[in-house]
Amino acid sequence: MLNHVINLLPMGAIALGVVLVTGDRAIAVPKNNYQDDLGQVTNVQQLRDVAPTDWAYEALRSLVDRYGCIAGYPNQTFRGSQPLTRYEFAAGLNSCLNQIERLIASSGSVSDEDLATIQRLSQEYKAELATLGGRVDELESRTAAVEDNAFSTTTKLNTEIVSYVLGTFGGQKPDGTDVDNQITLSSQVRLNFDSSFTGEDFLRVRLQARNITSPSTSGGSNALALNYEGDNGNSFEINALYYTFPIGEKLTGFVGTNGVDVDDFFDVVPTMGVAYDSLSLFSAYNNLIYDNANGGSAAVGLDYDFSDAVNLAVGYWATSPSDSTPGNGLFNGNYVTGANLNIALLDDRLNLALAYLRAYQGAETDYNLAGFVGTPAASDPFENRANSSNNYGLAASFQVLKPLTVGGYVGYTTASTIDDNANADIFNWNAYLTYSDLLKEGSSFIVSFGQTPTLTGSGGDALPDDADNPYLLDVEYQYNLNDFIMLTPGGYVLFNPDGNSDNDTIYVGTIRTIFRF
To answer: Which of 149, 184, 205 is the last residue before a domain boundary?
Structure first.
């Protein structure tokens, strides 16, 4: 059983991941928040630089599955070729030995071979472990002093700052006015207060301020929206408030308010990977599905892990829960409800997501049938009349080679007015290619191309179909300057804006900087 530990002894670099584990994380992290520290690894496939063909793959998998004493770096890497000192290895070894001793105590029996292995390892690193004990005592003393003066022992503050140097270029907007060919500098700041009261639950309160001028404004088409954008006059507001909590070993509950979107709960990351941070909002994920709640909503949901490879989430979102006037509120106003099924195959090399949403929109509201990036006809084919819709999504990603991943999504919406006088079909798709660790570990080159949400079929007195299909091409390089700063030069091009080939092609170029700490 312990031979896997012995196999790792010659490779100090592999043991570095063990060094990072000195106990359970104080803050539980929600599944979709892949931007935070990876921390304790529960599945070796979480480490994107570890492949089944690596010589120590089985040893790592055993340490993760059987002992739970392996951790990764914040960018989901293990760095198996990096050297370390004997003291560092001793710290990692001590973590695993402690876990093994707990397993022995709980099982009540252990083989003579395993006992001999534990004794030999303990004797080999006796001096280092003794020194480590002194260091741990010192750290505990310092930790106690920090906790006595800390803002909170249950809350962690993490910050995200996004800034753009951006330009939108082209001839005319779809409305016939000139494109605003100006270079702008704008930013967004998010302060996430993440708390855990039991070590397994997770509460997030997010404050946000931003002044980002969207290319959808300067270029005149919703499809040009940035992945991070908005303008609230640089005043901080509560942008998200939600809480996840365990209900048994496999079931997790979710409740939230103040701008909880579908993608805050439904896990988009497995099928989008680094593309989830794309420059273009359309390129980041399927807007027909995951932006359907339209923000400003309250939500409740359940998440169930059938296994490490299969996960099902169901949720309900109300877009005007605090409005007590007739036709609004938590259950009588606009709502979205549905489910998202994630499936991992081939040792997590192939990821699939199936999603379905049922939505209702009352009359004369700002609800949008096409997320934020559809043509005007796709966004509001019924001209503010009450309607309901069925929304279907399929997404997939496949790791062809260790650095190369291809993927994409397709979305289809069928909607009709409540009086049955009109109906509409909306369609979009996108395909992407990512090449990870290009030039530097943690950096990625991304190319994506697809059809933004388009009104492809209509009946009754709905608006007519879009004349042409709009397409968006996104090319960018996410350069990982370090664990805290990412620079992304790139841009995207919109062809046939607003579904009309007579409209001028519009270009967006930017250098985006993201600070996360």
So the answer is: 149
